[in-house]
Amino acid sequence: MALNPAERFTTRVADYVRYRPDYPAALVDWLHRELGVPAEAQVADIGAGTGISSKLFLDGGHPVSAVEPNAAMRAAAVQWLGGDARFAAVAGSAEATTLADASVDLIVAAQAFHWFDQQAIKDEWRRILRPHGLVVVFWNSRRLSGTPFLEGYEQLLLDYGLDYSSVSERYNDDASMAAWFEGGLRGMARFDHSQLLDFDALRGRLLSSSYAPQAGHRRHAPMLEALRALFDASAADGRVRFDYDTRVFAGTLGDRNPSGTRP
User: Fold this and answer.
1) Least confident of 49-53, 98-102, 212-216
2) Residue 84: other Cβ atoms inside 10 A
């Protein structure tokens, strides 16, 4: 039976913390420079996971409320970021954040956005946003081609991933994201991003993915053998390069009256 999205990463937290990519600091710089977001703006990081996206905004000067339903991932975020007085972890979901009305200036949603019910979240996000507050949606989209390693890794996932074809790269294109903002899109951007990984880090990066078979599954050992062969054939100076496009969409959600129509 398929796992609830909030539960998919419970057994993968350690690998997620160590090996998942961060996001480029240029993303926050762009928000400050191009959209005029002040560094003191209160952020709600929805689906914050282990805190990777929260760290990005803390480093940019923002206070952050990290909303995450998965207790194990939330605990990892607290262990990592809990010493910063500007950080608070919140047990809540994208549709029911538990945050107060009109309490945040900026809602951000990173890699978790594609797991959300993207229509159901809108009323909740409107509720917690202050007037003129912004929503920022972003993610790292792994490049599937361009180098022998990237193409080989994609084939490995197709060969061994458990439900890879149904959950991989489920990210919206530019047109559908513009439509999601219902006329409120104020900007979009794309940034190059990458990781340089030795074999242990590559292995951990793979096992952090919810569709990678874990130890005990019949595909686990063959998958790791194929990964070793791919690494040996592709590595330069003991590392391979994981390339991403970091895509960012920012805008307002507007208001709705109780009947569900715009005023």
Assistant:
1) 212-216
2) 14
71-81 vs 52-59: helix crossing angle, rounded to 10: 30
- Partner residues linked to 44 by β-bridges: 65, 107
pLDDT at 244 over 60: yes
> What integer pLDDT is reported at residue 10 of this predicted model?
46
d(CA 58, CA 119): 28
Q: Report d(CA 218, CA 32) in Å as an integer.
A: 49
The residues near 46 (Cβ < 8 Å, ≥ 6 apart) are 67, 94, 97, 107, 108, 109, 112, 116, 121, 125
Task: Report if residue 200 sits inside a domain.
Answer: no
Considering the domain boundaries, does residue 263 fall inside one? no
Classified as helix, coil or strand, 197 is: strand
* pTM across the whole model: 0.86
User: For residue 181, is it within any domain?
Assistant: yes
107-117 pLDDT tens trace: 999 999 988 99
Task: For residue 107, list its beta bridge partners.
Answer: 44, 135
DSSP assignment of 54-113, as one string? Answer: HHHHHHTT--EEEE-S-HHHHHHHHHHHTTSTTEEEE---SS---PPTT-EEEEEE-GGG
Query: Domain range spanning residue 189?
Result: 5-143+170-194+244-251
CATH of residue 86's domain is 3.40.50.150
